[in-house]
Amino acid sequence: MGSITALLDGFATAAQPLYLLYALLGVTLGTAVGVLPGIGPAMTVALLLPLTYTLEPTAALIIFAGIYYGGMYGGSTTSILLNTPGESSSIVTALEGNKMARAGKGAAALATAAIGSFVAGTIATVLLTALAPTIADLAVTLGPADYFALMVVAFTTVAALLGSSPVRGLASLGLGLFIGLIGVDTLSGQSRFTLGIPTLADGVDVVVVAVGVFAVGEAIYVASRLRHGPVEVIPVGGKWATREFWARSWKPWLRGTAIGFPIGTVPAGGADVSTFLSYAAEKKLSKRPEEFGKGAIEGVAGPEAANNAAAAGVLVPLLTLGLPTTATAAVIVAAFQSYGIQPGPLLFSNNSAMVWALIASLYIGNVMLLVLNLPLVKIWVKVLQIPRPYLYAGILLFAALGTYAVNFVVEDLIVLLVIGVIGFFMRRHGYPVAPLVVGMILGPMAEEQLRRTLQISEGDLSALVASPFAAVAYGVLAVLLAVAVVLRLRRRKTEKEVTAV
């Protein structure tokens, strides 16, 4: 009953006209960004992060949550009409949805993606509402060794599972840990890796790193691969809802939700893995397997539902444990920290009103997104016609202005450029950028918990695994890695089948 009462209070807050406006702004920006190929939710949240400092925390986080959900919705439009997935989680949608659009069924493909996203997002948010307080209550009892174990789990899984190579993921994580250590050591008061530059004595601002890696790095990378000429957009054709549409879509929506949410809650590959598993499941269960690869509506409905369910699942470890398991989640943690708020077990007790308003806004934003995506799809198609040079020039301009506005220090712009160039080369050579941000955010926290554990145990290293929870966490880590290997192998098998088709 306590959670229901808190959620109702959250709805009372989120339903205020000003917060409704912020939610609408967030989902609109997220959808617009998701529609544009090459720009994802992580980049948008990072770009807007410095520009929301004048807002109160609740308003800013409602905007970011709207962008997160909206970006997942909007990505289907690009995949279906342009055959250009904005993110890897939209690859399967592009495969079947684009074939449907070319066959004159674009409206049905867009509709099943939008409604499936709504169904999955709503069910997953209900599960988030039910699970989050319980996990938070359990996490309050954890000690320093337990927290360190959780962070080791986050480090290992995020680094090993994101990107094409675990070695590259670990290298990206190591770079992030190094950046997180720059500054003055709080325990000894000694400067670390500052190179004698006074600006670095306070450390590198996480906002500068997030904007540099996601916005500047991505803009330079896309510019280096920019293709000239007009963009070919397939017209939206056909009826969006028929009796056959509902009959063939509702089961894949539910199955996609059941696959996506559990995978999203654990660091086991996130939306990427869940969409491929959903596609494989739909192909195996379909009564018309011959249509797959030629425009099967189940191949759009299931993966899109899995994609959005996984997005809600990611918020469970983020809000309850403070562990980001995706790139966007890492930037949202940076948003929390920019307001002096640390997501984790105490979030539900110290900032109860804010977190429940945030969860309530997810329900409201989901309804807004359904309204925005079904009747206004032709408007989003127009967004695809924005010339890329203008778009990315604007991104770089806002990135520079936003970064300078954080501290009004010119040196931050130099750091922004350096981080942006690093982000560009990481993308170019296949290094995932999410582990870098996760390492920078969680690195100092892990160091603090490690030192606290060793101080309490007087240097006894066995204290790191003496706690039952820590021992279980390391055991779960081993299981997760094994499961991840199996899931990755299944994904590769599905990819080969998709390529063959």
UniProtKB/TrEMBL annotation:
Keywords: Membrane, Transmembrane, Transmembrane helix. InterPro entries: DUF112_TM. Pfam families: TctA. The chain crosses the membrane at residues 20-39, 46-69, 107-132, 144-163, 169-188, 200-223, 321-341, 353-372, 392-422, 466-487. Residues 20-437 form the DUF112 domain. It comes from the Bacteria. This is Tripartite tricarboxylate transporter TctA. It comes from Lentzea guizhouensis.
